[in-house]
């Protein structure tokens, strides 16, 4: 029901009431005219009472219409308010969902960025560790090769030392044997020369028998096969013959005893 339509029809109701009042006044006038003997003051009081009742009725009718209008107006306003509230709730819900999606997407992007950074860091460190491992492996291989080389060289030096030791022992034996032979020969020659001198010259004075020839060379070892004057003090390798002196060593390319090509020589100092 439209409250404005009700308000527009309210004058018709007031007209009916006035008509009814007029009818009642006419009836009262008729009653007065009939000779019942009512006074004019009573008529005025009755008329005032009727007017008062009419005013109260109008006020009640106006209040009824106003209450209807207010109820309709309040109902319309509550409907509009409810509709606006629903629209605001829907808007807020949509905005909340949009904000939640935006935050979720941002969180996912940050998570992916962190994962990517961590993977890159791990991959870089793995590459660095692999490079370090390759360097350590190469270094270890180099050290192992060096150790193997040193072991081989040590074994060669040990073999060479053993060979040199055997050579030294053999040379020492040869030198001892040569010194023994040379000493016996020298002592025999001295004894023969001395007996011959005594047989030819006879007895001599003590001063003449104690004379020493400054040009005489006393040989206390094997003679040099080159000059046959000095003691042989150089061993020829690889044949190991003690056969030349230090001065004649440079003039021979082969051993003067066995004619073996000379590789090197070792000088021996006789005490």
TrEMBL record:
<protein>
    <recommendedName>
        <fullName>RING-type domain-containing protein</fullName>
    </recommendedName>
</protein>
<dbReference type="InterPro" id="IPR013083">
    <property type="entry name" value="Znf_RING/FYVE/PHD"/>
</dbReference>
<feature type="coiled-coil region">
    <location>
        <begin position="89"/>
        <end position="174"/>
    </location>
</feature>
<feature type="domain" description="RING-type">
    <location>
        <begin position="224"/>
        <end position="258"/>
    </location>
</feature>
<keyword id="KW-0479">Metal-binding</keyword>
<dbReference type="InterPro" id="IPR001841">
    <property type="entry name" value="Znf_RING"/>
</dbReference>
<dbReference type="GO" id="GO:0008270">
    <property type="term" value="F:zinc ion binding"/>
</dbReference>
<keyword id="KW-0862">Zinc</keyword>
<dbReference type="Pfam" id="PF13920">
    <property type="entry name" value="zf-C3HC4_3"/>
</dbReference>
<keyword id="KW-0863">Zinc-finger</keyword>
<keyword id="KW-0175">Coiled coil</keyword>
<dbReference type="GO" id="GO:0004842">
    <property type="term" value="F:ubiquitin-protein transferase activity"/>
</dbReference>
């Amino acid at each position: 029901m439209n409250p404005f339509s009700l308000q527009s029809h309210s004058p018709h109701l007031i007209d009916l009431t006035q008509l009814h009042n007029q009818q009642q006044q006419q009836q009262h006038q008729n009653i007065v005219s009939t000779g019942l003997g009512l006074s004019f003051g009573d008529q005025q009081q009755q008329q005032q009472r009727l007017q008062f009742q009419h005013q109260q009725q109008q006020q009640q009718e106006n209040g009824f219409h106003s209450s209807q209008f207010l109820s309709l107006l309040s109902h319309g306003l509550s409907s509009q308010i409810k509709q606006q509230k629903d629209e605001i709730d829907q808007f807020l819900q949509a905005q909340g969902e949009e904000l939640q999606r935006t935050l979720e997407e941002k969180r996912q992007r940050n998570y992916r960025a962190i994962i990517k950074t961590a993977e890159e860091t791990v991959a870089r460190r793995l590459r660095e560790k692999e490079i370090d491992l390759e360097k350590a492996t190469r270094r270890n291989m180099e050290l192992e090769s060096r150790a193997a080389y040193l072991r081989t060289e040590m074994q060669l030096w040990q073999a060479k030392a053993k060979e040199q030791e055997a050579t030294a022992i053999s040379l020492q034996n040869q030198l001892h044997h040569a010194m023994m032979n040379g000493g016996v020969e020298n002592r025999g020659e001295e004894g023969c020369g001395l007996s011959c001198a005594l047989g030819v010259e006879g007895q001599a004075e003590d001063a003449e028998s104690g004379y020493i020839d400054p040009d005489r060379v006393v040989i206390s070892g094997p003679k040099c096969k080159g000059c046959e004057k000095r003691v042989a003090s150089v061993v020829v390798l690889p044949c190991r013959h003690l056969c030349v002196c230090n001065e004649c060593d440079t003039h021979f390319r082969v051993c003067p005893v066995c004619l073996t090509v000379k590789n090197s020589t070792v000088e021996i100092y006789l005490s």
